[in-house]
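debug: dumping io for the single-chain case to check the tokenizer round-trip. Nothing else runs in this session.
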Amino acid sequence: MDKKDLHINLPPEIAEGVYTNLAIITHSHSEFIADFVQLLPGIPQPKVVSRVILAPEHAKRLLNALADNVAKYEKENGEIKLPVQTPPMMPTLGFTGEA
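debug: decoded output
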């Protein structure tokens, strides 16, 4: 299928998007799971706002697409600088790395 032929339905409630500032990624033999979390000051328990489950092949395609888009962004806007910081204390959320 040509990209021009792909008609995607984007419902308004999905088009709004959700704010996330933390991603927790785990995997099993057959899938990658990305939990997108809102980690906000004063909120004792971070909230998973979206979970995406991907086949390994799609996870690698997503990795390549993100790398490509970050490179294009930096070419237009300059390097994205990340602050040097120590890893935050992660709460125990009650799951292991297996699906």
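debug: round-trip ok. The helical segments are 12-15, 56-77.
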